[in-house]
Amino acid sequence: MSEIIHKPGIHEAFRVKRHLKLQYRNDDRVHVIIEQIRQLDGVDTVELDGEARWLNVAYDASKLQFGQLTDMLREHGIEPDQGWWARLRASWYRFTDQNIRDNARHEPHCCNKAPSGK
Fold first, then answer.
1. How far is the C-alpha of 48 from the C-alpha of 51, rounded, in Å?
2. Closest by alpha carbon to 18, among 69, 58, 74, 64?
3. pTM surpassing 0.85?
4. Is 35 domain-assigned?
5. Residue 34: which domain range?
6. Which residue has the higher pLDDT, 60 or 7?
7. Residue 117 lies in a domain
């Protein structure tokens, strides 16, 4: 069995894959933003299918959130698809990313202790 090698700092349990259909006109701008996304803390892989205009990103959701990616794309004039299926998928991505982040930061308490009441 081969072991998958990830970038340093990527926690396998919090790694997610996201697929975005993009709407853009300038291919040069897309390649610049792809390189900026690769440099973000928590990003493992970034692939662009230029013909189909799909962006595939794998990242550690305890460090990076889906909304941060879409905000970064919008800042550079690249819009994610706005069809109903794409909006539903984006909502699901935001929900699961937030859930992963909350679970990653949760500190469990022992069964025989009362909760701290924070």
1. 9
2. 58
3. no
4. yes
5. 12-104
6. 60
7. no
